[in-house]
Amino acid sequence: MLNTFIQKSIAAIKQAKDLNEAVQMSRFLGEILWKNSIGQYELIELENALVEKYTDQFDLNIADTPRYPYLHVLTKAYDTGGHTRIVDRLIHSEAMQDSAVLVTESTGPNTLKKLSAAKYGFTQIGKLTDSRIKIQSIIAILARCETAILHLHPHDIEAVIAVAIAKKHFGIKVLIYNHADHVFSYGYAVADRVLEISYFGWALRHARKSEKKSLFVGIPLKLPDLSIKAKPRSDDGYLTAAGSAYKFKPGQGFSFPDFLTQLTSKIDVPFILIGPQPIRNWWWWGAIIKTKLEAKSKVKFTSKMPHDEYLKYLQNATAFVDSFPMTGGTAFPEILSLGVPCFGVLTGAHGYTPADQLKSVSIAQLSEDLNRFIETRQRPNIALDDIVHQLYEAHETEKVAGRINKAMESDISEMQPLWKNPAAVDSTFYEKIWREKKIFSMPLHTLPNIQLFFLFLAYWWNKDRNA
Fold first, then answer.
1. In Å, how far are 81, 126, 166, 193, 307 from 85, measured between CA atoms?
2. For a disulfide at 28, which of 69, 120, 334, 449, Cβ 3.0-4.6 Å?
3. pLDDT (tens digit per residue) in 290-299
4. Which pTM does this prediction carry?
């Protein structure tokens, strides 16, 4: 049934009346696959068909100019979120300082200042309604680089078409930084290398047809200098967790609100959550009522903070608990590097950091481990120094930049994740959560296409019958 939906969708896009319609339909389909984890992680066939059909519409007589080594291509550069911080760290690294940055749509005001510091400049194209003009503009910039590193939104087919044409006609190399490695994305047809960041993405190589392209590079983090003695850390007597609201939404038997209700009935210290929105997110309502009645309002919520402010706030916590079912991502290893005791649970959707070795095998075990730590301030059987050493090997910015710098010449078979995963990941984790949903997610970044919508609706109605 899934293959029927995909093949009918591709056939419909191939019949589009022009490039603009083909792009609009492809963006809509790409966002449906991005937002709904139905088990489809690539559309290499569609990418190749679009490039073959529309290449002759572009002017490729571009003046030969001196090339710079790296061009980082982003769809949008936000003021919050890890995506932009990754690019910011890489362009300021020694190994990848010879970089330029291209944003195909929009940039936040604070991020604009940071990315404009790229050695070979910053360009923002902006939203253009004519896809041919936009793709042509991207091609002209790509022609000036040796290697393009893609940090794209998964549905950004315009940038992918431009990169494919530039690769064919100007010989550029193409690396995909696989930041959203648990969802569908365009770009796998054109990639020379897929830069993996986790065991989870590593487990999906076959589904993306990237086994011969993928190598581990990791997520670059701003980590304290180990040669400088850290200041003594105060313990302000609170537990904390942080992350976007959706990362705490219960699924696959993992409920952070239920865990919190049980934990706060046994402990006296407050628990502060940064990011969740208790009024708008129904899954918190029962926990809020229960903790107010039984735990004397020990649970507190606060809105998102600027990244630096957020790290300072967390630095004095008694302990940090990673979000679940979805991991908080870089927050977990960053906070560990500050000397904060870190806890979490191995859900199957883990594998992004050596810090996962600090996580418990179940929610019940997590509660027990936290209770014991609060009482004793000790964690038996944890080789913390070894984990911190692995943390720096995996995440230190220069080490990550160095691996990217060598990506085209590295032996892929030797570039696997650098630490021992404490438990196997479940590469179907998000597919299982999606199947639990009562309704699918509609695209927000793209105008709907009626034909593709009804094809998807037919798949949706029959998904359980064909599971």
1. 7, 20, 26, 21, 10
2. 449
3. 766 565 568 8
4. 0.92
